[in-house]
Amino acid sequence: MISVSPENVITTPNATMTGLAAPSRGSVELSSWHVVMPAGSAGPEHSVSREQVWTLTAGSLEVTCEGRTEQVAAGRTLVLPPDVLRRIHARETFEAHVVMRADGVVSVPGEEGTRVLPWAR
Questions:
Q1: Residue 116 belongs to a domain with what CATH number?
Q2: In the chain, which stretches have pLDDT less than 50?
Q3: How many domains are there within the chain?
């Protein structure tokens, strides 16, 4: 059983991620987290080395991926392929649950190396 605790909540300038399942919390292969992104916020353009599945539970988001921009509303699920540039924008505040393999890392254009997602570890 995994319980939410303050050390599993990470706030960035763009969103708040609450880590749920992850290797540090008992999962072997998968990680999952809850995202809240306030209206008007946008994440940086980036790619992730693993497929991600986003299920929106409130609000809506705009995602630009592979040169296409789509609107995703609450109740819909978005599958983002690995190693493809994407950017998430909150036209209104949204909440989502995200799942991916726990070994995924992020690359940002113009930056050397990769970043881990601390809420997914």
A1: 2.60.120.10
A2: none
A3: 1
